[in-house]
Amino acid sequence: MAEEESNQEKTEEPTARRLEKAREDGQVARSKELSTAMIMIVSAGFLVIYGSQLINNMGDLVISSLQIDRETIFNTRKLPAYMLQKLADGFIVFLPLYLVTFILSLATPGLIGGWVFSTKAMAPKPSKLNPIKGLKRIFGSQAIMELLKALAKFFIVGGSALFIVSGQIDQFLSLGTLPLERAFAKSGELLSWNFLYMCIGLIIIALIDVPYQIHTHVKKLKMSLQEIKDELKDVEGRPEVKQHIRQKQQEMATARMLEDVPSADVLIVNPEHFAVALSYDRNSEGAPVLVAKGADEIAKKILEIAQEHKIQILRIPLLARALFFTTEVKQEIPDSLYTAVAQVLAYVFQLNELQAGAPRPAMPSPTVPDDFQFDPEGNPIY
What we know:
The chain has helices at 2-9, 16-24, 32-66, 70-73, 78-93, 95-107, 119-122, 131-139, 141-166, 169-173, 180-200, 202-221, 225-236, 239-259, 297-308, 317-326, 338-352, and strands at residues 266-269, 274-279, 289-295, 312-315. By secondary structure, the protein is mostly helical. It has two domains: 2-233, no CATH class; 253-372, secretion proteins EscU (name from scop), CATH 3.40.1690.10. Strands 3-2-1-4 form a four-stranded mixed sheet, with helices on both faces. Strand 1 and strand 2 (274-279) form a beta hairpin. It starts with a helix and ends in a 30-residue tail after the last helix. The relative contact order is 0.09.
């Protein structure tokens, strides 16, 4: 009963991890009909191009094989060698066709699902010897689909052959009136084209089978909500995964923070190890807000962005460290630092409004409260 409920609950699409695991086990969508259709059509196309030449070469081989002298026939050593030589010649005649079909048989399985090599797929499975499961496979939906495809191929290919050949009976009968070499070439041409026309019908079967196989493959891998939760718990429970997630989150947060640097009014630096960007809206009643902060490499990036956008940069180490260690990004500055920051912002706004030729205001020396003074390691100085 529980198993039936579990099957009914498997309505969710498989996760990327489930698909990857299935691929490792050799479970990928495959369409034999697509592979068959591609091999047959390309082979038929090859015969259309080179069919007449193959028939002529085969005809010449047959004629030369029948022109055997009496000595060879009655020589027990020469006759076997002669027969093997003719067999080898026949193989060479059709070698290009063999190579084409061999290459296609290797390439076509990768058209859907890609190429997969899995030792697990080749391992023996005792469960397949279960007669009950075997009966389910025989009378299951997959077996019914295979039966329908076989019937469809029979009627499509058979119907195509009947239709095509019935319209070319006169041409086939006229072969008997042609010289031998001409008859060979003409028969090769007729057979090649007719073979191609019949194979084209297999495309219809492949177009139906491909989406069906993909749908069936995904359906087999569908998961229940509980399975998705268990997988998520298993993945996120790994220390390396947690570390990777934290690293990605930190990188995303840093990227968002750096995007806000151009909106800052002033950048206060250590000068090298720390950088703190402040923004203040003079039309609001709120306190200045820390829009970005960073140490070492991130501080350098903040400094580069500030220089690029011509933001005022002030070197006030004590204030930079005080803001860095006491204020988070997007937060207002502490009350105890209002006076020091106000002096800095007033100086910056004066510089921004300074007219050409006017004297430059004096650089402020803001006082940082004793309990907000830190060394570069973040330890209180007092």
